[in-house]
Amino acid sequence: MYQKAKQYLLGSDVDDYDLTALFVIEHVCSDTYINLLARDEPITKEKEAAVFLALDACKNGMPLAYALGTAMFNGQMYAVQQGVLIPRPETEELVAIAAAVIDCDINSHPSIVECGVGSGVISLELAKQFPRRMFRGWDISHRAIETAQRNMASMGLDNVVFSQGDFFDGVPEWSSTDNVIIVSNPPYVAEDEYQGLDRRVLREPKEALVADKHGLSIIFQLVEVSIAHSAILLCEIGCNQRQRILESFPDTELLVIRDLTGHDRFLCYVPSQRGGIQRFANALGI
Ligand SMILES: C[S@@+](CC[C@H](N)C(=O)[O-])C[C@H]1O[C@@H](n2cnc3c(N)ncnc32)[C@H](O)[C@@H]1O
C-alpha cells in the first residue's frame, strides 16, 4: 500500500511524497506503519479508498493537515478543519516563551488572554501546563471557536473560555483585572505579499493571515491595548516587521526575540509597573 500511495503522488508538487503517503496511511488506519507492517494484514477496500481520497486532496493543493483533519503541535494532536489556520512550528516557540513568563510571574496570579485562538493551540498548551490559571481567548471566526472548543473537550481541560468575537471588543471584560498577559499569533501578512504565498497557504483563511497597514494593524492594536491596560504582551510578528514596529512606538520599551531559524519573530512588552523587560530577562532568554 505504501509503495502504491507513493507512486500515486509521484510527479505531483506534493513536497515530501514519502512522508505524505506514510502519514495518510497511518492516519486512515489509526496505527503506526511499523505496527501495520508487523500485522501484515491486507488493507480494507474502504480504507484504501480513504487513503486515495486524502492523497487526491493533497495532489490538488490541499494542505495535508486539512486532508487529515489533524495537525501535530507541541507533541499533541489537534483537530483542524478548512477555515481554521493550521498551527505552525514557530508558534510552539511562542508557547515556550509565554510559559516561561507565566512561570516567572506566577506569584502575581496572572490571567492570560489570547487574541485570535484559531484551533486553540496556544491557550490549550498553556492551560495544560498551568491548570490553576484561567485562560480566555477570542476569535472572530465561528469555525475557529468551534474547533478550539472541540480540542479543549478532547484534552479534558476546564480552565479555558473561548468566545467568538473581536478580541478588542472583549477588552472591557478583562481591563479591570490585574496582571493580565496577552498572547497572540495575530494575522500579520501584508495584502501585497498575500498572493505570492504558497498555493497551500492560500487554502487557509485569508482573515487569519492578512492584516491592514502592511500586516501591522492588529500588532499595533495589541501594543496599544497592552500599554493602556498595563498588560504584558507576547506576540508573534512577521520577520521583516521589527523596524516598523519599534519606530512606531519610540517611547515604549519593546523587545523582539528571534525564532530558532534566526528570524525576528516574537514581540515582547512588559510595562514598567510590572518590572519592565529586565524582570523577565531569564524567562525571555536575554
Ligand atoms: C494567525 S491565526 C492564529 C491562530 C492560532 N492562534 C495559531 O497560532 O495557530 C490568527 C487568528 O486570529 C483571528 N483574528 C483576526 N482578527 C481578530 C480579532 N480582531 N479578534 C479576534 N480574532 C481575530 C483569525 O480568525 C485567526 O483565527
Give a description of the structure.
- The protein has helices at residues 2-9, 17-29, 33-39, 45-59, 64-68, 89-104, 121-129, 142-155, 191-194, 206-209, 212-215, 217-228, 242-248, 281-284, and strands at 70-73, 76-79, 111-115, 135-139, 160-164, 180-184, 232-236, 254-258, 264-269.
- By secondary structure, it is of the alpha/beta class.
- The chain folds into two domains: 2-60, no CATH class; 89-284, Vaccinia Virus protein VP39 (Rossmann fold), CATH 3.40.50.150.
- β8 (254-258) and β9 form a beta hairpin.
- α2 (17-29) runs antiparallel to α4 (45-59).
- The site of S-adenosylmethionine has 24 residues, from α7, β4 and α10.
For the biggest sheet, the summary is: 7 strands, mixed
Number of domains: 2
Q: What's the alpha carbon Rg, rounded to whole Å?
A: 21 Å
The CATH architecture of the largest domain comes to 3-Layer(aba) Sandwich
> Could you tell me which ligands this complex binds, including any ions or cofactors?
S-adenosylmethionine
Structural class: alpha/beta
CATH superfamily of the largest domain: Vaccinia Virus protein VP39
Shape: elongated
Separate helix tally: 14
First CA to last CA: what distance? 50 Å
Low-confidence stretches: none
Spatial order of strands in the largest sheet: 5-4-3-6-7-9-8
The overall strand count is 9
Top CATH class of the largest domain: Alpha Beta
Helicity, in percent? 40-55%
Mean pLDDT: 96
Order of helices and strands: HHHHHEEHEHEHEEHHHHEHEEH
Please indicate the percent range of residues in DSSP E strands (runs of 2 or more): 15-25%
CATH overall fold name of the largest domain: Rossmann fold
